[in-house]
Amino acid sequence: MKQYISEARAIYEDNHHGLFSKRLAEWAINKMEVKDPTTGRMRKLNHKILEEVLSILKNYGKDIQDKYAYTAWYLFNMAMADYPKTLKNDEQRACFVEETLFDPDGTPYNVLDCFVAKMCNAKEPIHWEDMV
């Protein structure tokens, strides 16, 4: 697979082992939007900061290792943006994070792959050299 990706992304993958880095998670979360139920228009997500998400996960008994912290942060905010009707509260979003990261027939690295695919489909370039 590595032969099909840019050199900067290959370096990113080597450094972060297929998981979100702080910089990539911040960039991705800051791009998130949610449909405003009152106006029907898209607006910037009022996201949760990393420490808040980690605290929520801990409060609901979700033991997330440090190496998955930024990926969990991305997932929690993505759940808020993409699944507001299904994942309505912090407990449901915490379960979503845990189940997505530790899906028995998947891997935690699938999250980054799905994000990359989403950006490709949106024709939104990821400047990997800025993420390294």
Number of strands: 2
Strands across the major sheet, in which order?
A: 1-2
Major pleated sheet: 2 strands, antiparallel
Specify the structural class.
mainly alpha
- CA radius of gyration: 15 Å
How helical, in percent, are the residues?
A: 40-55%
Q: What string gives the helices and strands in order?
A: HHEEHHHHH
**Overall 3D form:** globular
Average predicted confidence as pLDDT: 92
Approximately how much beta-strand content do the residues carry? under 5%
Outline the low-pLDDT stretches: none
Helical segment count: 7
Structure commentary:
α4 (69-82) packs across α5 (90-101). The longest helix is centred in the middle third of the chain and has 14 residues, at 69-82. It contains 7 helices and 2 strands; from the N terminus they run ααββααααα. It has helices at residues 7-16, 22-31, 50-59, 69-82, 90-101, 110-121, 128-131; strands at 33-35, 42-44. 55% of the residues lie in helices and 5% in strands. It has a two-stranded antiparallel ribbon. The two termini are 19 Å apart. The mean pLDDT is 92. The protein has 132 residues and is mainly alpha-helical.
Task: Sum this structure up briefly.
With about 130 residues, the chain is mostly helical. It has helices at about 5-15, 20-30, 50-60, 70-80, 90-100, 110-120, 130, and strands spanning about 35, 40-45. The mean pLDDT is about 90.
